[in-house]
Every structure is written in structure tokens, then in C-alpha cells.
Design brief:
The chain is mostly helical. It contains 22 helices and no strands. α3 runs parallel beside α5 and α15 packs antiparallel against α16.
């Protein structure tokens, strides 16, 4: 696998570490109820028995943490992430020099968006075991979130060299997509699917990600087939349901698509799903329903914060900007976020906040920094088009707008208008023309 990323034209979990010993914390086993897949529940029960029989060894705590993390992925139960962190902290307390316990805690901390902590812990694990592939995966996840793409590429290449697997292939696909290599991302995701996982949900995730790539690149037929293939394995898989819905809406089957998207929305869905659904409702003139969904975004963010999960600031700012409210707060939020996270998503949101607040020179610099990474994201290019339009660079605006629409007209117009950039002397496009 050496050099695979470069051959193709060259995904994310992180954690925390301290020099002080972590206090032993025994998870409240009685609070871990049965839900989610039978496999995850069985593993939780096995881990609980192992902890009871070997309370001073880290193995049972690591097994319990892994099973809880998986169940949280399946159910969206945030309390499982908190319980998993407690389990992994107990494992580190029992064996502070065990690379497995360290990289597990690092992995868990990524769920709480504590990426600096995750890097510290994963680096400790690598120092103990230089061939700890999973630790490199956690390091990759954190570096991607922080916008440190060169280091992310190095970490995922090392992970691939050490252990080709669904986990490493899917991360490499995330990297390839971020730097503009959609074809490479598809190849790697297909390898991830072929590699498989003991947990069926992990494979479903990769199948959905492959369909997402096809969708963003405008191959709507392949995307629809991909989402349906995932749903054949699990008809309730929320990520595939939402993806199918957005794909149907893009193909003109708006009502059918919105029903599918709505069926994927609950309190455990990613807030960005609700945000996109609200934007589509708004485009369709269903303002009251859209307002309800936007309010739900804020409630979800608050629920995450109650469980110690940070990192939803961008989603909150995007929600305000989509509604045209609290624009000054959105800008303040994104300026602060950009001090810590320099990935393309952060700079895209910062640019839009600056644009919405009339700071077009700053917006131009921020959107160029976001685009320099290379991601083939239609909404990113649509934003760049509108910023160029406001700056008076109509030729560039038209080029960017056409590129965004050629990729995916649906994503390029939700929230950015379907009209092309104004002609010289034509009507001026102001903030009021854009949602």
C-alpha cells in the first residue's frame, strides 16, 4: 500500500492526553441499557462480564468503550459516547503505557471535537508502538478537522502502509475528496466496502459515502443506485435515507425526496441534515416549516453541548445565515472558530459570514483559502461565485457559477439562487436577493 495516496493523485477520529494519571473511573454498568444492534449489545454484555472478572485489567474497559462507540453510531444516543469515554479513561488509568488504551481514548475524544487532546494521546500511543495503525487513523481525523492537510495525508498513508482495511481506505477516500480527487475517493471507498467490517453499519457508511461522492459530482443515477443498495441492507439507515431524498429532489421528484429526507430526521440525526432540509423547504416556499426545522437545529446543538460535545458552532452560524438573522453573531462565531480550525469548511462559512456582513474583501480572501484545498463541493463554488459577483468580478463569477451547476445544480442553488451572475449594468445582486 506504500504510496497509494500519491498513486491515486494522492477519513476521522481523535483524542486527549495529559501527563497526569487519569483517575480510575468504573462505568455505571447498570445505566447501559440494551438498544441498537444485537452485535453491539452482545459485546457490551461480554465486556461488562470481563470487567467484573478482571477489574484491574484494561481489556474489558476497552471492549466496552468500543461497543458503546459503535452503538452510539447506530442509535445516535449521545450518552453512549459519554459512557465510552468513561470506559476508555478507566482503561488508561489501569494501563497508562498501553498504546491501545491511549488510541481508544484519543478516538473517543474526537467525538467531543477535542482534536488537540486527540493528537496528544495518539502521539503518545505512536511513541509506545510505532506500528499502531489505529493511532495514525486518529491522528489523521484530527488533522483533517484542524485543516492540517499535509500532516493528515502523511498519517493516513502510514495507516494504509501498516494495515489496509475499511478504516484506512475510507479515511484515505476522505483525504482524496478534500484535495479534489473525486475519482480516487470512489476507488478507495469501493476498496473499503470490499474490505468490509465486523459491524455492518461501518460498511453501510462507506456505501453511503460513495453515493454521496457520486451525487456531488452530478452522477445522480449512480448516487440513487448506491443509496438504494445501502437501504436494501438496512431500510432504516438514516444516512442513506437522507441521501436518497436529496438525490430524488435533485432529479425533480421534490415531494418524494423531501419525504425521504424527513424520515431520516430525528433528535440523533446530524444537525447538518436538518439544516439542508430547512433550506430546501425555504426554497420551496414553505417558510413556516423551514423555521421549525431551523429552531430544531439550535435545540440539537444545545443537546450536544449538554453532553460536552463541542464543534457545532459552524452549523449554528450557517443556520443563522440561512435565515438572515443574527448575522453579526454568525460572523463573530466564525472568526473565533477560524482561530482553532483552519479546514476548508470553516473558511467557507467564514467567507459567507463576511459576505453577509458586507466585508467582501475579507470574504474574497477567505473563500480563496477554502477553495485552495481543492474540494469539489458545489455549494463552495456557488458561494465563491456570489462573492465574486458582489466584488464586481463577473467573469469569474459566471465561471464559478457554471462550474457549480455543472457539478450539481441542486446543491449549487439551495441558498444561493438559481439566477446567473448579473451582467454589467444589469440589476445589482445584494444580500436581499440571497436567502
Amino acid at each position: 500500500m506504500r504510496g497509494l495516496l500519491l498513486t491515486l493523485g494522492a477519513l476521522a477520529l481523535v483524542g486527549c492526553a495529559t501527563d497526569k494519571a487519569v483517575k480510575p473511573a468504573v462505568p455505571d454498568l447498570s445505566s447501559v441499557k440494551s438498544e441498537g444492534s444485537s452485535r453491539a449489545n452482545n459485546l457490551i454484555e461480554q465486556a461488562q462480564r470481563q470487567i467484573k472478572s478482571q477489574p484491574e485489567k484494561p481489556g474489558g474497559y476497552n471492549r466496552l468503550g468500543h461497543a458503546l462507540m459503535q452503538r452510539a453510531r447506530e442509535t445516535g444516543n449521545l450518552a453512549d459516547y459519554v459512557s465510552a469515554r468513561t470506559a476508555f479513561e478507566s482503561a488508561v488509568a489501569k494501563a497508562p503505557d498501553d498504546s491501545t488504551s491511549l488510541h481508544n481514548l484519543a478516538w473517543c475524544w474526537t467525538m467531543f471535537h477535542q482534536f488537540d487532546k486527540a493528537i496528544e494521546l495518539s502521539d503518545r500511543a505512536i511513541k509506545i508502538d510505532s506500528e499502531d495503525a489505529f493511532a495514525y487513523g486518529v491522528r489523521f481525523d484530527s488533522m483533517m478537522e484542524l485543516g492540517r492537510y499535509k500532516e493528515a495525508g502523511q498519517a493516513v498513508q502510514r495507516m494504509l502502509d501498516l494495515k489496509p482495511s475499511l478504516a484506512s481506505y475510507s479515511r484515505a477516500a476522505q483525504y482524496r475528496w478534500a484535495v479534489g480527487d473525486g475519482k480516487g475517493a470512489v476507488i478507495l471507498l469501493n476498496r473499503a466496502i470490499q474490505a468490509g467490517s465486523p459491524y455492518g453499519e461501518n460498511t453501510l457508511w462507506c456505501m453511503t459515502q460513495a453515493a454521496d461522492v457520486a451525487f456531488k459530482l452530478g452522477n445522480l443515477q449512480a448516487a440513487e443506485q448506491g443509496y438504494k443498495a445501502a437501504l436494501e441492507r438496512d431500510s432504516r439507515y438514516r444516512h442513506a435515507l437522507f441521501g436518497l431524498g436529496r438525490c430524488l429532489a435533485a432529479r425533480g421528484r421534490t415531494d418524494e425526496g423531501m419525504r425521504a429526507m424527513r424520515s431520516a430526521l430525528d433528535q440523533s440525526c446530524p444537525p447538518v441534515y436538518r439544516l439542508e432540509y430547512a433550506a430546501l423547504l425555504s426554497r420551496e416556499g414553505r417558510k413556516t416549516e423551514a423555521a421549525t426545522q431551523y429552531s430544531q437545529v439550535e435545540k440539537q446543538v444545545q443537546e450536544h453541548q449538554k453532553h460536552g460535545i463541542e464543534g457545532d458552532e459552524v452549523v449554528l452560524a450557517e443556520s443563522w445565515m440561512a435565515q438572515g438573522v443574527r448575522l453579526d453573531e454568525a460572523l463573530e462565531t466564525m472568526v473565533e472558530e477560524a482561530k482553532h480550525h483552519t479546514n476548508w469548511q470553516t473558511y467557507s462559512a467564514l467567507a459567507w459570514a463576511q459576505h453577509k456582513n458586507g466585508q467582501n474583501k475579507a470574504a474574497k480572501a477567505s473563500i480563496e483559502r477554502a477553495m485552495a484545498v481543492g474540494a469539489q463541493e458545489p455549494h463552495l463554488w456557488a458561494r465563491a461565485a456570489r462573492i465574486a459577483e458582489s466584488d464586481g468580478d463577473l467573469e469569474r463569477a459566471r465561471t464559478l457559477f457554471a462550474s457549480a451547476q455543472n457539478l450539481n445544480q441542486h446543491l449549487a442553488t439551495i441558498g444561493y439562487g438559481s439566477h446567473p451572475p448579473s451582467k454589467p449594468g444589469g440589476p445589482k445582486v445584494g444580500a436581499s436577493r440571497l436567502p
